[in-house]
Design brief:
This protein has about 120 residues and is mostly beta strands. Helices cover about 0% and strands about 50% of the residues. The protein has strands spanning about 1-5, 10-15, 20-25, 35-40, 45-50, 60, 70-75, 80-85, 90-100, 115, 120-125. Strands 2, 4, 5, 6, 9, 10 and 11 form a seven-stranded mixed sheet that branches. Strands 1-3-8-7 form a four-stranded antiparallel sheet, with no helix packed on it.
Amino acid sequence: QVQLVESGGGLVQTGGSLRLSCAASGRTFSTYAMGWFRQGPGKEREFLSSITWSGTYTCYADSVKGRFTISRDNAKNTVYLQMNSLKPEDTAVYYCAATSSSYPYPNHRGLFDYWGQGTQVTVSS
């Protein structure tokens, strides 16, 4: 069993920045990679980024490439998402996810096994 808890969401102005955190607990040794998704009102869950616990494999959606940066702290079992140059269209609930599959570039929700409850990010215009 793996538990994921997101934090760091909030209200920011257009052009501002936020850093989201995802703390993993439980059987974290069984997970291979972590990812970030978001879901806006009335929209489907959208892949944003992923990172492996080992190596240096990262993956980004085109919509956030150059603005968002994913990182990890293995000692703390924590993954981060640094979000810069935020836009109103970034407003959504942001979810952390984990996968046990040993694929270095997971970029689809179907590849992930565990999910957090989400944290709200609101960007005002």
